[in-house]
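Handover notes (outgoing to incoming on-call)

Open items:
1. Divergent PAP2 family protein: sequence verified, structure written out, both below. Nothing else pending on this one.
2. Nothing else urgent.
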Amino acid sequence: MKTYAYLLTPFLAWLVAGCTKFLVNSIKAGKPAFGLIGYGGLPSNHSAIVSSIAALIAFREGMDQPAFGVAITLAFIVMLDANSLRRQIGKQAVAINRLAADASGCEPLRERMGHTKVEIAAGVLVGIAVAVIVDALLV
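Divergent PAP2 family protein structure tokens:
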């Protein structure tokens, strides 16, 4: 019997991580945080997505399968990028926005980019949890 678990799992991980991030940001802000939707924040959507599919492959096919190797490699690349490159881009945006504060007509750059290790770990936990639930429900 075919299931759509491999299609559904990353979508659900994205949805759960995104809703969780919105709730966390709204609680911190004391109001609905629609302006904080996007890159950065807890949990990491990207980490949740890639870890959910890697976990589902591990559960259903085993960790000795080539598909798991590809999935875990992709997951590491995404998480390293979120913690290093994208985080540095966010720091640069802060500095550029300070320099350009007096310039008229300059739209500020987005400063929330990348993730801390805690935000990435939270995304991984969300992804694995979603994979466990999908694997249990879509047999």
